[in-house]
Amino acid sequence: MLADSSNENTVLWSLTAPPAPTVEIISENLSFDVVIVGAGLTGLRAAVSLAEAGTSVAVIDAQRIGYGSSGRSGGQCNPIWRATPDDLATEFGNTQAERLIQATLTSADDLFDDIRRLNIDCGAEQNGWFQAAHTRRQAASLKKLASAWRKVGAEIEDVGSTGTQAGVGSPAYEFSLLHAKGGFVQPLALTRGYAGAALANGARLFEQAPATAMERKNGKWHVVTPGGILTAEQVILATNAYTDTLWPGLRQTILPMVSISLATEPLNAEQQASVLPGRVTVSDSRLAIYFARYDSDNRLVFGCVGSTDSVKTFGGPGRLRKGLRTVFPQIADIGIECSWAGRIGVTPTMKPHLHEPAKGVLAGLGFSGRGIAMTSVMGRALARKVLGASNSDMPFPVTAIKPMALHGVSKAFVPLMAPTLSTLDQASVVLDRGLGRLSKEKDRT
């Protein structure tokens, strides 16, 4: 049992990650080649590449390393989009889509190769990911998705009822896709590992250093913090769902939706044999998605969509418990050690944005539930762009900032999304069962 972990909003990862590296507090004006705002997975992965290339780089964070999404996510590496390759071609054009498709196909292996190369202790396991359908309609949709991605080289297996229930250890699903490249990490440990690698290559990291203003003077950017001004040729904005008003309009390009999670007490050997055997991960096709994976100490981490930064809002603990009972009824009464919430940066198209709003400024954000794999892709891409790569070499299209229409109204309704989506999910299950009964009666007649 974790010490002092009974309270809600206690993040498991902060209790089990290796110690954070020693960082600095800004107390004077400093100059660098690149300043990165946001010490999460994206910003720190970019810092690793830049520092390895010999670039003078500083990473600053308003809070601490991994405070935001990177220290609060489920930590699952789910290396495929909800869109098909043809959908990507329609959205981006054939050439850009091909770059994104290739980056997607290699994203998981690239991440786990990174972890090994940098010798990061983050409980990384690449045992596969079950993408499960919660209704027959969603099963049909997933079959089409898998077929489309297999045509471009993805390793995806259609798994029927028996294989799904055995592989996931759940009676809740009768069809799934098994993605061989999927896996999981301890996300805060990965973030701290990137931080250590960046420091080892000469980067400087500063915590408790909110960027309060940016101004271009004499050909350089001046990033203002309470402790001093940082001057740089290039600035990378990597604040994702915790983006504020530092750059006009950037916050309005995403919705800060919320994921909530719980961690059970460690499962014994018998329980592990029936819940996610093989230490795979699972996420399903609900609008208010359920997901689950193990941690290194055999706790089950189970999550769903939440409402605010507090797990309690609009019955969050109840949704988590109900979801756990639905998916894994065999451990319905297991003890819960902690639960927490974190924001997810969601874009209208459910794919990340790479912006270049001004000369010497880049922003990468909006990973929409694919952050473990895609922050690694984005971080490396941002670094390559700073080092001189052209837009035509980027896995994501490089665009100007375009705020969402009615962003303020949409953001105000975010807390209501979790209960609303959960209600719609319940209705879809009831409808699916009713259609199933009608189909059986029709077959008998």
UniProtKB/TrEMBL annotation:
Gene3D superfamilies: D-Amino Acid Oxidase, subunit A, domain 2, FAD/NAD(P)-binding domain
One annotated GO molecular function: oxidoreductase activity
Oxidoreductase as UniProt keyword: yes
EC number: 1.-.-.-
Name of one Pfam family that matches: DAO
Keyword annotations: Oxidoreductase
Domain of life: Bacteria
Oxidoreductase recorded as keyword: yes
Domain called FAD dependent oxidoreductase: residue spans: 33-384
PANTHER family per record: FAD DEPENDENT OXIDOREDUCTASE DOMAIN-CONTAINING PROTEIN, SARCOSINE DEHYDROGENASE-RELATED
Name of the molecule in the record: FAD-binding oxidoreductase
